[in-house]
Amino acid sequence: MTAPVFPSLTRRRLLAGSASLGLGLSVAPSALFAQSPGQAGVLKYATLGLDTSDPHRHTGSIAVQQCFVEALTSIGVNGGVEPFLAESFEVSADGLTYRFKLRAGVKFHNGDPLTSADIVANIERVKTKVRGGWLVSAMKLVDKVEADGPDGVTLRMTEPYAPLLNLLSELWILSPKSEGWDDTIKTPIGTGPFTFGAWQPKVKFTAPAFPGYWRAGLPVVRAVEFDLRDGADKSLALRAGDLHIASVERDAAEVLKKAGAAEIKTLKDTAWFFLGFNNRRPRAPFDDPRVRRALAHAVDKAALMNFIGGAEGVVTNQLVAPGNLYFDQALHDADPFRRPDLAKAKALLAEAGVKPEDHTIEFVSWQGTYTQIVVQMVRKLGFKVNHQALDDIGAQKRLGQWDWDMNVMSSGPRADIFLRYVRLMSDGPNPVLWGGIQDPALDQLITTAVKQPDAAKRKAAYLEATKRIAEKSYFVVLGHAPDLIAVRKEVRNYEPGFTWACHWASGGVAHAAISG
């Protein structure tokens, strides 16, 4: 499988309706927004959850909140940057100054027009009041942001920051009149095609259509109802017509396809799977890199990735899949864990003086069949395994207690490669899946990559970070597979995007229609 190439953010001038200027940054033409009206109805949608009502404080809930909030930029289906609330933007030759021109006619859900002052207020809020989020590293480098009239914004950086345009796709713009603005927002007022409606955490979220949306003819449906339940059988709900669009596992996808109940599509970027270790408070003997390598040698990566992704599953040792700009073939070919090797695993344990039968691995994962497969592979070495398979919130809570030894997890598509590496930094957001790495040398390698405007040099810096991760055995990448999305036959004009976002500049739930 070939994954989409991440675009190089090497700069300069980007205008709505223009062609890409050789930078890999696609800009949506104005014709993209012309839509014919469709039928009304309630679109029932189930992929990821909603973890907060404050979009500036999210830990990954872009699959829901992007229906009611939008950003200056957006990530298109090819991974390129598209203008969104910004009609156009340009970057100075030194990479320090960004200028945005706002789109005319955009209104918040309370009827107020979007102005440059609102953009400034949102950036200042994230910079000064949000700690540990996705944008914390970028916001530290913002020197000044100011309004240039009612429809212009200038943002100045203290140093170049290559992923900024991509990351701004996750700095959602809210009305400063949103309830809880000075603390934690309880009722977000956005500009999206749908409004923030009734929310039952971990159960359901209903988003009614916004009649004043700035794109004529959108949204098509009168509401989107998001199923937020963990562990619910989405395939049964899809077959019964209780869901229209849902993420599904491969075995369920095959059943749905054979039954003719749904079309099976994929996100355009891949999810990556990995073995994680407790790096914040490791206990013996699982703090020993030899023991960690032994455990990795016990895993049959090819069998596992075939189970997860079928023909589209890819075995590799990198955070990106083959075909990606940042993929390194030489490192891929040198993967020491490409094939299982129980003999080498046992030799490493003997070298470390570890008798597996004397130890119990505290193993945490999400609920899923593939996690049980990994546990069985590890048990072949003789370790006892106490496997705790939990829902999303439960797993992250347990991991954050730092009283475990090992996990197997996955992480989905992101707007920029930096959002894969940022969670490995000492001050990175939501670091629990990777065991809370605290490594100033790794931080510096990632920071060097981010500052580098030259794509080749940026790739080299990220590669050095990957090598350090392997050297320290912080975690072990198993491979990549695309996430599968089942779409019922009566749904028209919907294609999954590059990431989990349910709405972006050139597509998503605003365009979806339901046939009778």
TrEMBL record:
<keyword id="KW-0732">Signal</keyword>
<dbReference type="GO" id="GO:0030288">
    <property type="term" value="C:outer membrane-bounded periplasmic space"/>
</dbReference>
<feature type="signal peptide">
    <location>
        <begin position="1"/>
        <end position="34"/>
    </location>
</feature>
<comment type="similarity">
    <text>Belongs to the bacterial solute-binding protein 5 family.</text>
</comment>
<dbReference type="Pfam" id="PF00496">
    <property type="entry name" value="SBP_bac_5"/>
</dbReference>
<dbReference type="InterPro" id="IPR000914">
    <property type="entry name" value="SBP_5_dom"/>
</dbReference>
<feature type="domain" description="Solute-binding protein family 5">
    <location>
        <begin position="81"/>
        <end position="413"/>
    </location>
</feature>
<dbReference type="InterPro" id="IPR006311">
    <property type="entry name" value="TAT_signal"/>
</dbReference>
<dbReference type="GO" id="GO:0015833">
    <property type="term" value="P:peptide transport"/>
</dbReference>
<dbReference type="InterPro" id="IPR039424">
    <property type="entry name" value="SBP_5"/>
</dbReference>
<dbReference type="GO" id="GO:0043190">
    <property type="term" value="C:ATP-binding cassette (ABC) transporter complex"/>
</dbReference>
<dbReference type="GO" id="GO:1904680">
    <property type="term" value="F:peptide transmembrane transporter activity"/>
</dbReference>
<protein>
    <submittedName>
        <fullName>ABC transporter substrate-binding protein</fullName>
    </submittedName>
</protein>
<dbReference type="InterPro" id="IPR030678">
    <property type="entry name" value="Peptide/Ni-bd"/>
</dbReference>
